[in-house]
Amino acid sequence: MDKISPFQLSVLETPEQCNLALLGARGGGKTMAAVLLAARHLEQHESDASVLIVRKTYKALTDFEDELLGFISSLTHGTHSYNRSEKVLRFNGGTITLASVENIKDYTDKLQGKNVTLLIVDEVTAYQSERILRLLRSNLRAPEHVPTRVVYCGNPGGPLHGRIFKNHVQHRRSHVPYEIELEDGHSEQWITILSGPADNPFINQEQYVRRLREACHGDPVRLEQWLFGNWTQGEGLLFPAFDETVHVLSDVAFDPDKFKPIIACDWGISSPSVALLGGRARRDLQTDMGPLPKSSVILFDEVTDAIFTEDNLNTSSEWPPDRLAERIDNMAADLRIRRPSLIVDSARGLQGDTVQQMMTDTGHFWSVQLPRKGRRAEGWADVNSRLLAAAEKNPQRPHLYMSDRCRLLLATLPNAIRDERDPDDWHDVPHCPDHAGDALRYLLAESRVQPVRSGRITGHH
Hints:
By secondary structure, the protein is α/β, with parallel strands linked by helices.
């Protein structure tokens, strides 16, 4: 192990009881740092050591396989053996197993019941959700004297960017331990270590940077991710300003003297329907959160027929428009809002009539209007602007907050990633659909319409 970069040495020096998130730009030597950990783990714990290295796809695994074997050979001086068909490497009595795990079936067929003492997930942001990661982590079992450990390696971008950013990058300092609370009430200790091409003395940095720039020509967002390890741009996070501790409220009460109610709905047949009830601040307000500028929006409640599963939020109970209208009316009544107005997207209902007409026919609403859609990118930009203004407590720009009752919105908005074909748009995928986001766009667009009063006539401009 004579060729070790300072970054890789710092990885080896971390306490074995801490899980690691090796993150940052490409070319920093993250994967090989994890392999060094695996080799040392086998040296220390011999036959008690069982390492699992996972990549999402078979192609990604085979691209890595020969590089790994060459690296291991230089470390072990050829004293290891490798079964290519089983993808199991044996050294010093322990094993390193390579596996591609893309879905639940892959996990069940290849790894269910296998004991692992060190789990390395490479290219972790390529996964769609954390469910596969949790299944892999369930394999961590070891004798009492052998600590189990998880190591994530990854670059910015990809479906899991948002979760990795929130858990391991945002508000974290490189090399400084922190704790992550688990659902069972326990906690884990983690250390994030960031790296990039400048941390890898074993590559021709000028040549490597030039190749990255060529590969990202015309895509400045991806260049920021790959070259500089920028986690706040690109297909990773569409709403990087979102912060649960800032923007999510509990037990927030609607006051009609302070807020004008707005209800916006996105209806679907097989996909979820969702309606958001928001309030637009009628004037500058003083609140428990601090100053709330006029035209700021608080989302007080949500109605949805979404079926909440971990890997797919794009299925629904298929409520017809009249049932959805009744639920919306009940939601409004709970906040003492009688016969509200409704903004609903134009679509055909189950009987072929427009949803707008079917909602009108229920008699629950004072009026039913079409949304002021505009460009989707402009709607998302407005969401980001309001989130940022709230985080900065900017008194000049409207803020955005949401109640913790907005389940579908809170399950999707923080995890929304950019569409690779259109980086300004939401990448609509089953585990993070854009239905609640669309309802939010419609609501904010309506909140920007200022009433004009002249004599006894009220209109809009």
